[in-house]
# Entry
Amino acid sequence: MIEKLLKNFVGLKKNSIAIAGAHDDSVLSAVKQALELNIAEFFLIGDAKKISAIAKEIGLDAKKFEVFDESCDVSSAKTAVKLVKEGKASALMKGKVETSTILKAVLDKDCGLRGSRKLSHLAMFFVPTYHKPLFMTDAALNINPNFDDKKDIILNAVSAVSSLGIKLPKVALICAKEHVDEKMPVTLEYEKFVKMNESKEIDGCIIGGPFALDNAVSPEAAKTKGINHPVAGDADIIFCPEIISANVLYKSLTIFSKAHVGGVIIGANAPIILTSRADSAENKLISIALGGSLGGNKL
Amino acid sequence: MIEKLLKNFVGLKKNSIAIAGAHDDSVLSAVKQALELNIAEFFLIGDAKKISAIAKEIGLDAKKFEVFDESCDVSSAKTAVKLVKEGKASALMKGKVETSTILKAVLDKDCGLRGSRKLSHLAMFFVPTYHKPLFMTDAALNINPNFDDKKDIILNAVSAVSSLGIKLPKVALICAKEHVDEKMPVTLEYEKFVKMNESKEIDGCIIGGPFALDNAVSPEAAKTKGINHPVAGDADIIFCPEIISANVLYKSLTIFSKAHVGGVIIGANAPIILTSRADSAENKLISIALGGSLGGNKL
# Structure
């Protein structure tokens, strides 16, 4: 199963990932699987003794990775960021450190990896009932983004998805209407994004909307509503206007539709791979493959 | 398949439904199926000639229903409402008239069916991957409900679901967090609803939240997050805070999870069954069975 999913990343770059807080059995099990599947290489930053003990326990060969001994979470995150800045690693991964700690190191003005855009979360789903990978943003980071934030979130997603080899990704701007309506103010913003795409101010993608979700992912639903647009029924990227609708969609896809999913934070000069203990082994590997493939690209 | 779904309504009342604008082949086909399955009786209001012609064409026996000839949509809606007010019918159904036309007749201060609460939409899903029917509100009517509106929407749903025989329905208040957080203001409202439930100001249900969707419908996800609450993993009613997240969930369940769904507007003195041409035959019948079962109850 996972091998089939990982075929989506074949031909893409295999990168080195710097893990902050690698002294965790769940993280190191994912590292072991990723090494076996040959999808990435790793720098492990954290408590070296613990890393060594866990590696021994799970049968992870110590010769296959380099360890940087850091017992404190903050230094662990800083060292991981430094490895990326020096060009040794090209993606970050959160181990047993708080997300806020790693984001602080990334956003540090002097030593960080801050880019010109706002950070955002991108999820990549393999939905059994959809005909291709489906990307969605932002279910985890930006609670209630304003117009400029939304623009950054869209640009982040388009850069990332394009760099995975999906040319001119189709972006669907989602709400609960298929036309501009002042009673739903986000439709006015969506109209502007569509115009900015038509005038090539936002380029490298096809933007459509406002759409209800069904118009974006079901050709039949789009046809029934009389919507004739290249994005309708064939979206690559689902853009949700705020975190609640995005999070509801994320959970509906994983729980009810049994989708596999990987997630990364993008918008900085390197992707940040986020996995949690609760993630399945498959989902962890998708996150690693996704982040690894995105690493080293201009996002 | 539909027979199995309709078993959920067995033992509930079989009611008379007044259809405004019944001169429509899609509506009359649903009527024919509903009569064959013996789930409701009908008063057909609309263009009598057209009704007669379509009935003949689809093999619907004219002796099985009563027709009220009204060629204008407004009078059609008014007559349907009058039949409910007189106690002849106990539910309304939208045929070939605008939703706004039928709502205007329902909300008319003198001749309507206005109750003390705001109207709201309730969807009933049969999700293949969930262990019981799942209700959700409000994906269609209230765009951005305030606190009092939310209270009405919750009370409407609890009354309706209880009257279907589900005692003490479990209501999950959904957002993207599992704890109260000022950065997501709806969590403060949710805290109040939970307290109003504990003090029995909102009674006849168990309210839990704030929850992310997975905590509400997956016992495993709830356990992983350390949530121990009777609603967690076993929700009957999903409450979404505004229309976009609700609509996204509705479309995700129908398109990606292949759920069957029925829908009604509740909060007036009779339910209003909404079906659209695009609905599958199964979904139309679920709406009719749902509205028919709710009719005549104090909602």
Remarks:
- The longest strand of chain A covers residues 40-46.
